[in-house]
Design goal:
It is built from nine helices and eleven strands. Strands 2-1-3-4-5 form a five-stranded parallel beta sheet, sandwiched between helices. It is elongated. It has two domains: 118 residues, Rossmann fold, CATH 3.40.50.2300; 100 residues, Winged helix-like DNA-binding domain superfamily/Winged helix DNA-binding domain (Arc Repressor Mutant, subunit A). With 227 residues, the protein is an alpha/beta fold. Strand 1, helix 1 and strand 2 form a beta-alpha-beta unit.
Length: 227
């Protein structure tokens, strides 16, 4: 999952970047509203964290413009403004949730996880797909109850596929959502990850969890996609 942070306080921006990266997210950062609006418009994100008091373009205007341009990923507001009216205005502008500064990082991470779950239609952190089970909190995948050892990027690939179980996901889209913008991306590496995942999740070839649609991409086998 790829997250955009728009925050003008350097220390907080670094803390957010570090905490989210440690949780396995691909993270892009912007220090003002103008850059945040550009990145939020130009790149595909699964969630954005936006401070309201930004230089160049106010956070509320960034949110409004993103929504006007059809960007529908969840947005979490960070604000030092503790009046309830400000929070209502932020939510009315298109945000999905807010946190008032100062806040505990654990609470922010919990809200991020909840927003991401809701955005893909998951009511809880755990979901079953036939013999496969995904636990977003533990960042783990199990087959028939046995957890499978995966590398960080193998997990990111299968997580994205499982959280979009009825969609055909191209290699380009997978690449964009598992790497941040500074990473030297090679979409051909996705083929390697998928090949490894098939061997680890289905060594006997009985589940066939990931289908390849030639020229289009990958999807979770419809036979297990509905759980």
């Amino acid at each position: 999952m790829r997250i955009l942070i728009v925050e003008d306080e350097p220390l907080l921006l670094e803390q957010l970047n570090s905490s989210l990266t440690k949780q396995g997210y691909a993270v892009d950062c912007a220090a003002d509203g103008e850059e945040g609006l550009f990145q939020g418009t130009e790149y595909p994100y699964d969630l954005a964290i936006i401070d309201l008091g930004l230089p160049k373009i106010d956070g509320l205007d960034v949110i409004k413009k993103l929504r006007e341009q059809g960007k529908n990923y969840p947005i979490l507001i960070l604000t030092a403004r503790d009046q309830w009216q400000e929070k209502v205005i932020g939510l009315d502008s298109g945000a999905d949730d807010y946190l008032t500064k100062p806040f505990e990082m654990d609470e922010l991470l919990a809200r991020v996880k909840a927003l991401l779950r809701r955005s893909v239609g998951m009511a809880s952190a755990s979901q079953h797909f036939g013999p496969l089970s995904l636990d977003l909190n533990a960042q783990s995948v199990a087959v028939d109850g046995t957890e499978i050892e995966l590398t960080a990027y193998e997990y990111k690939v299968i997580e994205y596929l499982l959280t979009h179980p009825h969609q055909v996901i191209s290699k380009t889209v997978l690449t964009e959502h598992i790497y941040d913008q500074d990473y030297d991306r090679d979409s051909n590496v996705i083929e390697v990850f998928v090949r490894r995942l098939r061997k680890k999740l289905d060594p006997n070839g009985t589940i066939e969890p990931i289908e390849t649609l030639r020229g289009r991409g990958y999807r979770i086998n419809p036979a297990i996609a509905n759980g």
